[in-house]
Write a structure and sequence with these properties.
Structural class: alpha/beta
Helix content: 25-40%
Shape: globular
Number of helices: 10
Strand order of the largest sheet: 9-8-7-10-11-12-13
Radius of gyration: 22 Å
């Protein structure tokens, strides 16, 4: 089993910290577990994973289970123009290397599971975030769940229905998760003057989209605004959403997300922004970012990962971990 896990999970699974550790989970040598903390260079980590998985495969391991809380390149899961679908490539490489099962958390798009020809358990962090809202936000009954773009509306609706709260959607903001600039595939630049295939043939061009004026659908005046999303990487869209909510009368702004990449100057920008608190899980280590910005809080999700590992190792059902999860969650 190849486990790319947070430090807390290493303690629960009796894995020594630092480096790769290979040990037998019990007297049965057919199940082996590998653990390594995520390195800063994701490409190096992925390559190490593939090598170790292949080493287990060539050593006749009965099962090789990958535990990857944050699946890398998950934003590149759709084909745009003539670009590549990197998530599909990564899934094919993992399956070819020898993975027999994958445990991950909150994939950017649930359809990524279809890229694998092995079982994939896409766990959810929302129960931990919902518990944080109920226990750590005293006046959460006066809150409203906010989607910073229409693309996040389903997630916001799921949170709102479970907390019995209202929902608001910000329309007009740039949808970072779906843009070419964010995932690095805006290359080469578009050529505006393109000659027709034949002088007598003109192919109609699709009218380009124009970002409408920023509007907030829903009432946030005098209430706590809780912005929910799956990934916080580039925080510009979150900062713009926070400013918009402040202008509409929200007196406190929280940001909730599963994966806190918080790259580049994100901690400094959050510290200087109107956001009161950013809550992320520990699927990705972010201790340095927390030192730079006290507003960043962490929710521990190692319990559900360790329980998933235990159930798979003992051959128990995984359905218990997916209770009350609908198609839109």
């Amino acid at each position: 089993m190849f486990c790319v896990a947070p430090p807390e999970l290493e303690t629960k699974m009796n894995i020594t910290k630092g480096g790769l550790v290979l040990f037998s989970a019990n007297s049965n040598s057919s199940c082996m577990e590998l653990s390594k903390k995520i390195a800063e260079d994701v490409n190096t980590t992925v390559m190490e994973l593939l090598i170790m998985v292949y080493a287990c495969k060539t050593s006749c391991a009965k099962s090789i289970i990958g535990v990857i809380p944050y699946f890398p390149y998950s934003k590149q899961c759709k084909m745009r123009k003539r670009g590549s679908i990197v998530s599909k490539l990564l899934a094919s490489m993992m399956c070819k290397a020898g993975l027999t099962h994958l445990i991950t958390m909150d994939l950017h798009q649930k359809e990524i599971q279809g890229f694998f020809n092995i079982p994939v358990d896409n766990l959810r962090a929302s129960p931990f975030l919902l518990q944080y809202i109920q226990e750590e936000i005293p006046d959460y009954r006066n809150a409203v769940i906010v989607a910073k773009s229409p693309a996040s509306a389903k997630r916001a609706q799921s949170f709102a229905e479970r907390l019995r709260l209202g929902i608001a959607v910000i329309h007009g903001e740039a949808q970072d998760a779906e843009s070419d600039l964010v995932d690095g595939r805006h290359s080469p630049p578009m050529v505006r003057n393109v000659a027709a295939i034949h002088p007598s043939l003109e192919i109609p061009m699709l009218i380009p989209k124009e970002k409408p004026p920023i509007t907030v659908v829903g009432d946030v005046g005098g209430r706590i605004a809780i912005i929910v999303d799956d990934i916080i990487d580039d925080v510009d869209s979150f900062l713009a959403a926070a400013e918009t909510l402040k202008e509409r009368g929200a007196y406190k702004i929280f940001v909730m997300a599963t994966h806190g990449l918080l790259s580049s100057d994100a901690p400094r920008l959050i510290e200087e922004s109107a956001i009161d608190e950013v809550v992320v899980t520990n699927t990705i280590p972010h201790e340095i970012q927390k030192l730079q910005c006290p507003k960043i809080k962490t929710v521990d999700i190692s319990m559900i990962l360790s329980e998933a590992i235990r159930r798979i190792h003992n051959g128990e059902s995984m359905s218990y971990l997916f209770r009350n999860i609908g198609l839109d969650d």
